[in-house]
Task: structure prediction
Amino acid sequence: MDDAEREARRIRRESWAAENLGRQAAVMEDLAGRADDTLGWLALDRQAGSYLRHLATWKRSKGFTGINDMLDAHQGRLQDWQGQAAAATAETAGVDPGEVAAARAQLGLRLAVIGKGGAGKTVISSTIARLLARQGRNVLVADMDVNPGLSYSIGLGNADVALPLEVLEENPGAAYGWQLRTGLLPREVVEKHTVTGPDGVRVTGLGKIGSEDKHEAKRTVVALIQVLLGFGEPAWDVIGDLEAGPTTPFERYHAFSEDVVVVTGPAWRSAMTARRLLPMVGEGRTTTIVGNRFRDEPDHPGLAPKVRIPFDPDVAEAERLGLSPIDECPDSPTIKAIEELAALFTSTEVRA
Amino acid sequence: MRIAVCGKGGSGKSMISGALARNLAMRGHTVVAVDADPNPNLGISLGVARETVETMKPILNALLDAGHTHNDPRPLAEDLLDHYSVDAPDGIRLVATGKIERPSDACLCCGSHNTTRQFFGELADTERVVVADLEAGLNDLIWAKPGAEDVVLAVSEGSEKSVEIARRAVVVAEELGVTRIIGVANRSLSVEDAARVAAALGTTEMFRVPEDPAVEHADQLGVAPMDSDPGSPAMVAVSELADLIVKQ
Result:
């Protein structure tokens, strides 16, 4: 790549980024326009917070220095929205503090599941999704791996759950050349263009490598990040099942998340992976270490799990068959432990 | 000869790569082991000390630390090997291509994949045997770009997910023009189960490595099963796999 080419690429990137700020503003306006109760204001506040976290990564990046002023202005607008939301919430709190606490407890999860390959991220993500849906919650679970997996554990076999072509459009400035179709709000994508799985869980994800359509995987990356980052609906839980290890750059892929589950197994290298992943989780997120498939092995030093999920041959058999553990062995101690884990995030106690 | 080992996370790529490299080295080959995982851990399966594995500097990270930019001429693979490899048992030299250490390494994955491609590519015409343990999944296979002269091992344990990823790896390797693709049914519970994996992969060569508590135990301790229990069923199987690979 020569200098002229590099410069042309930089301009394409920046013009894509500038357009993307407009999309974020549209999401904010949509949420603000519908915010008619405390829950709505809290959702607006949270959405602004997600975009601000993401914006911080752009401001640190060398790639967008040409649109610094636009980034600053966008930051100001997001902070204004946060201010509006805070004022509305404070007003309610002055009258009825209980209402704010109750609304806060209704806010859905934004959960990312990470860990070494084979640690059990997918079984845990999909089982949490199914359990929450059974409690009557609205759940979106996203397969953020370009290798197949989540569809099996959620109970959809080898179904294609990737974002469909109709929600995508080409843009030469987007990474891999594709993004979410202009004018489409993330919530519209979730409503109309995701696969409905067992218990009503909505399933979406990246395209897969090795599919007949060679470009499927790359085409979906930016759009999925745009959907997850901009899906601000307050009464929905969002769970992202990340790719193995540290590859999918965290700041972009899990920018949507507020809670992060780090899955470890009994193997020493799985603990080493967790030690490498933990510093990458980033500030402002809670981190929960989970031990999966343990028999009688001791905990890893310094990585005591909050929940220890026992090994169960019935779950291994469900995995062998490519079926959903919660369907195949609903009474398994594995499922019971994942229930315990899910409860950590859905407790009605007010969270800081 | 270059051997690229791929498969789902947790399928046993590193165990197979490590034990295979040791077996080839013990047969007198000069072996370079390439850890292409951005979460490098192949050293464990080779018998390198845990602390060394945890702290060793991959090529990409070392070059970045040294202030290297894409405008600088890239050092030759031989020099990189001399500078950044660590010694593993049986005379093996282990080198990692790249490691993602910070969230701000947002673009390091491309750099890591590129380093893998260049380094793996430059080691094509040497007398050595190169064993490359690729990142979980298929992405790295496309980056590493093995070709007609190379061997690809598609490793799968028995789960449907793992089999599906290995099946796709076979498809991708075929498209890259690799002619020798060996399916490996790892952690196999029975001959029948290995036959099921074999049928799904459809490779002309297929190999079974049995489930082995000795491997699991070594894994838990973070040591190489080649050192802790070289006579265990899985290690005997990998030794046979080494024979199969070099026989031709």
Observations:
- Chain B has one domain: 2-247.
- The first helix of chain B runs from residue 13 to 26.
